[in-house]
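Backbone shape codes:
***
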Amino acid sequence: MEFTFVSGIKAAWIIILRFFRLSLILLLPLLSLPWIFTLTNHLFQKGSRELVQIQHERTQQEISPLKNWLLRPFQGIGISMLIATKLIFVLEIYSSGGIDASVILPPSSFSPWRFLTTTAMTVTVSLVLSYLWALDDLGVRIYNRKTKEIRMIGKYLGLVLPVILGFYGMISLSKNHSMMMAVQYLGQMILILYPPFLVFNVFHTFYINRSEGRLLQRLHVKSQMTI
């Protein structure tokens, strides 16, 4: 199986089109964020729990080189690879054959099946990340009126764990290839996914700054706390 890098003028157009396609698929779910907040706000407001906004954690978000250029893009890449790992594992069971990481790498020609698969994965990752990033950027936490305990939503998502597990999963799925080829597959995935995730989280920051009031209203966040 050949590594799927291409070269020349054709390669430039493929890379540009792939970048815009992935960026668009990542960005479009942002428009559904208020609707998703409306559907899920009741999940966090049962019994003595309610959603509050921690004032000192909510400031106008700025583009940070560490968070927006490094941490969040690699968080997105890591989670994408985790989902890809699970998908390939299911395909291996279904097909009873040897399927490896190369199945999700962009082919040299258009494949409808791969397009639908990568689109579904990208939308899923976009929805999960935009939802959790929005809650964190808005300073929204779960407050228990009885215990006075304040918890962060999605605190177990983390950064390091999904990145490590995702990268390790992709390498382990390339067990039919040499370590050098596995690293090449991993490197290609990073080169493909980093630019769209960089654009996605930067636009996400602008979107949160512009839509804060509407999003808090959809979440039914009425209380503001200073701790």
